[in-house]
Amino acid sequence: MTVPIHPEAIPGSPQELRWVLPAGTLEFVGEVAVAPASIQAWVDDGVITSMTAEPTALRIALRDGRSWRRDGAAIRTALSEALTTADQWRGASAGSADDVLRAAVGQVLAGEVGDFIRSHGGALDIVDVAAGVVTVSLGGTCAHCPASDVTLTDRFEDAVRALFPSLVEVRVAAAPSLASGRRLLGLFPVSSRG
């Protein structure tokens, strides 16, 4: 089966392209240690100097003196063939699915969703990523905002799930407690009315 890919330029880095691919195509993030023969041949010949997996892309850098204009079509063909055997790709480090999820969360927070949260004076910090569950804490204006649930589900969780379809859940860490053991309450009290 053919995996859809398309290249994106990386500003300020003409030797490198970011090949966008469906989320979950490669099951690791970070430097590629082993790739299928069709693309590995370009690495072995020294044309490709590095390949780095992201949650939804593969960054490929060419050595100086080579160009995407010259080699791009052939590399695209080799990459397309290599992606049909995704199980033959190996990362340089023994990462886990949670490492891919953590990278996806970082990408979301570095992008539009994080910009939106920061533009309103809010903060969303990652507390933990384990077993497909992301635990976050809300800070700044998000800590007491009545719309924070909407931001968390309709913006953050949806964006993370688009990059990592196997996301199990996004949870909010428990509110901090006072030294006396009493919980800090939000700005708006919870009504007991149904």
Short description:
With 194 residues, this protein is α+β, with helices and mostly antiparallel strands. The chain contains five helices and nine strands, in the order βββαββαβααββαβ.
Give your account of this protein's structure:
Helices cover 32% and strands 26% of the residues. The protein has two domains: 6-91, 2-Layer Sandwich (Ribosomal Protein S8, Chain: A, domain 1), CATH 3.30.1370.70; 97-172, Fe-S cluster assembly (FSCA) (GMP Synthetase, Chain A, domain 3, 2-Layer Sandwich). By secondary structure, the chain is of the alpha+beta class.
Average pLDDT score: 85
Beta-strand portion reads: 25-35%
Cα(first) to Cα(last) distance is: 51 Å
CATH homologous superfamily identity of the largest domain? Scaffold protein Nfu/NifU, N-terminal domain
Uncertain regions: pLDDT < 50 for 5+ in a row? 180-194
Work out the helicity level. 25-40%
The largest sheet is: 6 strands, antiparallel
How many helices does DSSP assign? 5
Structural class: alpha+beta
Order of helices and strands: EEEHEEHEHHEEHE
What is the overall silhouette?
elongated
Counted up, domains total 2
**Top CATH class of the largest domain:** Alpha Beta
User: Strand tally, please?
Assistant: 9
Largest sheet: spatial strand order: 1-2-5-4-3-6
CATH-defined architecture of the largest domain = 2-Layer Sandwich
Q: Radius of gyration, rounded?
A: 21 Å
Q: CATH topology of the largest domain, what is it called? A: Ribosomal Protein S8, Chain: A, domain 1
